[in-house]
Amino acid sequence: MQLIDAIGRKHGQIGAGEPCRIVSLVPSITELLCDLGLSSLIVGRTGFCIHPQQVVANIPKVGGTKDVNAQKIRQLAPTHLVVNMDENEKPTVDALSSFIPNVIVTHPVSPLDNPPLFRLMGGVFGCENEAEALCAQFDTALQRLLHKLQLNEVSQQRGKLMPHRVLYCIWQDPWMTVSRDTYIARMLELIGWQHLISDSTARYPVFQWNEELLANIDEVILSSEPYRFTDQHVDALERQIGKPVRLVDGEMLSWYGSRAIKGLAYLGQLAEGKG
Fold first, then answer.
1. For residue 139, is it within any domain?
2. What is the pLDDT of residues 168-217, one digit of tens each?
3. 259 domain-assigned
4. CATH of the domain at 203
5. How far is it, in rounded angstroms, from Cα 202 to Cα 16?
6. 26 lies in the same domain as 91
7. Count of domains in the chain?
8. Does residue 79 lie in a domain region?
9. Which candidate, 229, 249, 203, places its Cα nearest to that of 51?
10. CA-to-CA distance for 69 and 92, rounded, in angstroms?
11. Contact by Cβ (8 Å): 230, 247
12. Which one of 45, 90, 222, 260 has the lowest number of neighbouring Cβ atoms within 10 Å?
């Protein structure tokens, strides 16, 4: 199997006894690498790489996803750097690639991109069996979700899920949402939730509350990350806009990698009104 990343770059598998030192600038992939049994090879992470907590606590921080400390990374002498097209800025990655020999670029935009991601990481770092085990867990979780949705359709005597129009909010001051061409929006589509289409070409557009906007949505979703929305925000916004507002676990809907397996189960809870 060819090991090709999101920008079409081919990667080889590390050889037996070959030194491997990984810096991950992607929180969800740091978690994935740990779940693949590779934590001992990770020499650097961002401050947002917080899972699994007890494991990453022993891995040095190298800054944030966008404000990395290049000098500290250089001192760690990594052989591999893992980045993401949304979370890390290209000039930063280009600068780091001048002294890191292997840069793996990721860009999952759909839940179904997770198994290929598992296999890419498993193939490069020599843990194919662990990667296939995660693929099997993901497929089981996906089939359970689809089966649950089918049962819901039968119980509600509908031929298909009725579209539920939502606006997913990731920030305030200014208010920001996600476009339809994002991992979050496509996760929501799995349970028939139609994310409001924005006129903006930005992947994470700024918006203003107005009557036209509110007329086209059934529910507002506040994510627990990257902005730390709380129940207090839910109450205040409901009073302001007169629409149902729900707080969701942002990690479950936006983190790809191994977290997506739990994310699929969480989607099932949202579909049942339990999220």
1. no
2. 999 999 999 999 889 999 999 999 898 886 556 788 999 999 999 999 99
3. yes
4. 3.40.50.1980
5. 44
6. yes
7. 2
8. yes
9. 249
10. 10
11. yes
12. 90
Q: What is the pLDDT of residues 76-120, one digit of tens each?
A: 999 999 999 999 999 999 999 999 999 999 999 999 999 999 999
Block residue for tokens 């400390």: 69
Say yes or no: 99 and 172 in one domain.
Answer: no
Same domain, 254 and 174: yes
Last residue of a domain, one of 38, 73, 107: 107
φ, ψ for residue 223, nearest 5 deg: -90, 145
Q: What is the pLDDT of residue 149?
A: 86
Distant-in-sequence, close-in-space partners of 39: CB < 8 Å, separation ≥ 6: 33, 55, 56, 59
> Which residues, other chains included, contact 33 with Cβ-Cβ below 8 Å and sequence gap of 6+?
22, 24, 39, 41, 42, 82, 121, 125
Mean pLDDT of 144-155: 76
Whether residue 128 is predicted with pLDDT greater than 50 in this model: the reply is yes
Distance, in Å, from the CA atom of 255 to the CA atom of 32, rounded to the nearest integer, reads 10
Quick one: average pLDDT of 141-159? 73
* Secondary structure, 3-state, 147-211: HHHHHHHHHCCCCCCCCEEEEEEEECCCCEECCCCCHHHHHHHCCCEEECCCCCCCCCCECCCCH
Task: Please indicate, yes or no, if residue 180 is contained in any of the structural domains.
Answer: yes
Burial class (CB in 10 A: 0-12, 13-18, 19+), 257: buried
219 vs 32: CA distance, rounded Å: 32
